[in-house]
Design a protein that fits this description.
This is SPIN-DOC-like zinc-finger domain-containing protein. The protein has 134 residues and is mainly α. It contains 5 helices and 2 strands. It is elongated.
Length: 134
């Protein structure tokens, strides 16, 4: 007797539908379906999961008109994007700090000075641009 093949989610080619943005307040972020209201993701990107999440967790949003929905979606999407980019500059600052410390260590090693000798760093500070937070 032949065994039945198991379905695989990856083989079903489920993709985000743009109409879900206005209907269910969902947006695709990094290949995941994210609720704009509560920032939760659904396990599988299919309409029944998106609809179930929307109807069970956010029933108060069903009273909006089409124009109100569109404005609300744009506002929430902008907030989500701003929230996700909030952590990006901190990452750059940390990277710049690490680069600066390597540059100072290399400068001290080239001159053969002790790490406690701050005069060398103070002298070179005006010509090295990464100390200014660039």
């Amino acid at each position: 007797m032949a065994e039945a093949k198991k379905r695989k989610i990856a083989s079903e080619c489920r993709t985000f539908q743009t109409r879900w943005e206005n209907e269910y307040f969902f947006k695709e972020v990094k290949e995941k379906c994210v609720c704009l209201i509560c920032n939760e993701t659904v396990a599988v990107m299919k309409e029944s999961n998106v609809r179930r999440h929307y109807e069970t967790k956010h029933p108060t949003f069903t009273s909006y008109t089409a124009a109100e929905r569109e404005d609300k979606v744009q506002h929430m999407a902008a907030n989500l994007q701003a929230q996700q980019q909030y952590f990006y500059p901190a990452n750059n600052t940390q990277e710049n700090t690490t680069i600066a410390s390597y540059e100072v260590a290399q400068l001290i090693a080239r001159r053969g000075k002790a790490f406690s000798d701050a005069d060398l760093v103070k002298q070179r500070r005006t010509t090295v641009h990464f100390f200014a937070g660039s």
